Amino acid sequence: MKSQHCFFCTQQCPLFGPSAESDMEVAGLPCTDQSAAGNRLYQEGPTAKVFLAHAKRHIEKETPLLILENVQELHMGIIHKLYGLWYNIFPIYVDPRDVGHSGASRARVYIIMAHKQKVAQRFDCRKMYARISAAMKALVATTPKDYFVADKIDIQLEAARVARVRKRHLKPKAVELDYLLNHREQKAVEDAKQIYWKKFHRDPMKDENLVVFLGDNPKRYLCWSGLSEHFLLVSHSDSFSCAMPWRLRLCGREKLSTLGFPVSGDTALSMGVPRLPVSDPARASQISGNCMHFSCILVIQLISLCCFTRTDSD
């Protein structure tokens, strides 16, 4: 279970008081039984006990404000059954394009839950999200190529990692990493090119926004940006993607970039924060495969703090 306290609160929060570190919790509960790509067992699946444990813990603690993140296929019935007696429940269906990341795709539901005895609603959180989203989409809309921010060091670190895992000879001066692909992945690239040509009647090598996920067989299930022009942010931390013109260079920094993290100078500057250093590509890939979209959760936390207030504090 991914769990964390509010990004905005440190010592004291003007809305929730000096004990704000325990007043809000954000958690991403397991989605393997909920996702369309999973086993679809929902509340009958093995991860249901995590939902039960989370609900029991916070009902007993009377945590004022909870935010749960999960796939949009999540059955809301189990949420209402577990939390409904104690919390007012506000699901918000979110996509990265809502916060300007049109070049990425990780649709999720964020469920804001306000304790019925401790928290009062000041504004409509769904309307607030819609207004903020409209303002952000009017300012920026990314495309897949915007996320290729890796420098030479990032590429070489990724190449060294892959070569070590696959027992391949490392070519330090190579910019393109196609020599590290196995036979199945090479075939997947060729199949994706053929499908692209048949659909669009143009050269896929000239499409700078074309990204293909190589973990699947394109003839059976094609995960690419060819139709939607955005990344599908997959959770396979060690799976490869390739971009056209031919580049196998979806490095750890670039995976975090698709998730809205300030890993490039321009992104950090626009967010008004220091650049996030990325020195371990394996760790970066692991994080990107299991975390929330950074910009999405920041907006959700912002509207949570703006739309709700404590009623039992001095």
Features:
314 residues, Rossmann fold, 5-stranded mixed beta sheet, 9 helices, C5_MeTfrase, SAM-dependent_MTases_sf
Characterization of the model:
It is built from 9 helices and 11 strands. The chain is of the alpha+beta class and 314 residues long. The strands form 4 sheets. It has a 5-stranded mixed sheet, sandwiched between helices. Strands 5-9 form a two-stranded parallel sheet. Strand 2 (24-28), helix 1 and strand 3 (65-71) form a beta-alpha-beta unit. The two termini are 33 Å apart. The model is unreliable at 1-21 (pLDDT under 50). Keywords: Methyltransferase, Transferase. This is DNA (cytosine-5-)-methyltransferase.
**In which range does the helix fraction lie?**
25-40%
The overall pLDDT average reads: 82
From N to C, what is the helix and strand string?
A: EEHEHEEEEHHHEEEHHHHE
Strand percentage, roughly? 15-25%
Number of strands: 11
Please report the number of helical segments.
9
- The value of Rg in angstroms is 21 Å
**Overall SS class:** alpha+beta
Distance between the first and last residues' Cα: 33 Å
CATH class of the largest domain: Alpha Beta
What are the low-pLDDT stretches, counting only 5+ consecutive residues below 50? 1-21
Q: Let me know the largest β-sheet.
A: 5 strands, mixed
